Amino acid sequence: MTPAGLKRDFVQRDGPSAAIESATRTLQFEAEGLAALRAGLSGTLSESFDKAITMMRACHGRIVVTGMGKSGHVGLKVAATLSSTGTPAFFVHPSEASHGDLGMITKQDVILAFSWSGETVELGNIVSYSRRFAVPLIAVTSNAASTLGTNSDLVLALPQAKEACPHGLAPTTSTVMQLALGDCLAIALLESKGFTARDFKALHPGGQLGARLKFVGDLMHKGDRLPLAPADGVMADAIVIMTEKALGCLGVIDGDGLLRGIITDGDLRRHMGDGLLARRIGEIMTPSPKTVSPDLLASAALELINASSITALFVVEDGRPVGIIHIHDLLRAGVA
User: Fold this and answer.
1) pLDDT digits (tens, 9 = 90+) for 175-228
2) Other residues' Cβ atoms within 10 Å of the Cβ of residue 188
3) Which of helix, strand or coil describes residue 182?
4) At how many degrees (to 10) do helices 18-41 and 173-193 cross?
5) Which of 44, 45, 115, 284 sits in a 20 to 30 Å window from 303, CA-based?
6) pTM for the model
7) To 5 degrees, how large is the angle CA 192–CA 196–CA 200?
8) Torsion-angle region of residue 91: left (phi > 0), alpha (psi -120 to 50) or beta?
């Protein structure tokens, strides 16, 4: 059979194709690797993981992540995840480190080195540098007895796992496990520091993620834009205010300025022809309206609006309206 024929046979046959079977088998190997990692974190790996978090939290400089080849690509992602979740970090390429980038590493830093075998030759100069200048070194490897492991202050020993590659050569399961452990470190550090959504926003101002991390207080109408009227006022005045503010609703306040109710365009339609203009605002309002605080994430406000089938929410502090957020404001800001 020609090579082209072999290729066609691989992807075209009755039942699941060979390609689908291969993909399923790859996922199975990788899932088994993650299961082994999870079991390790509940057992033999737990003590060293706790120590790693303590060491990284105590770091007064930055987490210097390093690794070669596929482990290096994992390290790049881990450094980015750490930095974006409140733990300053950067990646140093082992080869570049041997040509001057060792100067980027200080005694205040902590080195996080990825190497599945623990025998990556290119890491030698970083390891030697860390020992010479007493820079704390955490090794992420499957071989604690390796050169990297025995020369580190702490070893995060990954469980042995079979690569999805049928030849056992291409890093697949191993890199998934390394990446997962990196995420575990980043999230554990985030939670231990009390890193909030507002902190996250400061580091992610752009794109759709930045839009989702806006807060209600960033987008709400306030001051003279607020449609408010007292409960003892008449509906003729309420309609004028609602028309002028053009937000589709009116907040009803008491003598102390507390929000007591809401009137919507729907309420006006339901009471039309019922001597509406002469009636008191308090008679028409819906009491105890849904409200939000200024520090609520805009995405959470949009979820509440959609779940409640409404178009706007009053923003309150200590029971007093300080703003109003409309669904159109959220959509224009890219919150979705």
Assistant:
1) 999 999 999 999 999 999 887 666 666 565 555 556 667 889 989 999 999 999
2) 16
3) helix
4) 40
5) 284
6) 0.67
7) 115
8) beta
